[in-house]
Amino acid sequence: MMNSQLINLLGALSLALADAQLQAVQTSSGIGTAGCATLVALGHHPNLTIREIATIAGLSHSVMVRTVEALVNAGLVIKTPGKDRREVTSRLTPEGKRLRDKLIDAREVVLKNALENLSPPDQKVLHRLVSEMLENMTLDRNQSDHLCRLCDETGCGLNCPVEMKVLQIEIGNQR
Fold this sequence. Notes:
mainly alpha; Arc Repressor Mutant, subunit A; three-stranded antiparallel sheet; 71% helix
């Protein structure tokens, strides 16, 4: 039987961390959550289509069209033609890259503060547990990209438990 208090504590912690991260990235960048997710996504994967960015951000295509247009008008994103006349891809400008780095750094400060009083052994245990929990929650590529929409992918590198789980799922689906 699962401990009811543990369930509540995990829920409260996850909301507190999510709220603090969103507040930090919005405050550091001066733009909304959709814009922040767009900057991070384009930093990882330049030349995404609006539909691809919308999937990562978990937002509608129309919201993402307006978000990308606002970022273009702010000088943070450049739109380029895609594979056909209907498709447009986007990439960061140098100013967009600087702002992306700033919001990634702000997010990192929030999360480091949450971890700072844990001993190194406790951090190691938490690392293992969080990795396992994220693996359990990873269902497919789109959902994994959404989970990691504000992540600094260089922080995990090739050892990202979410990415490794997606690759495992994709290989299993090919069989």
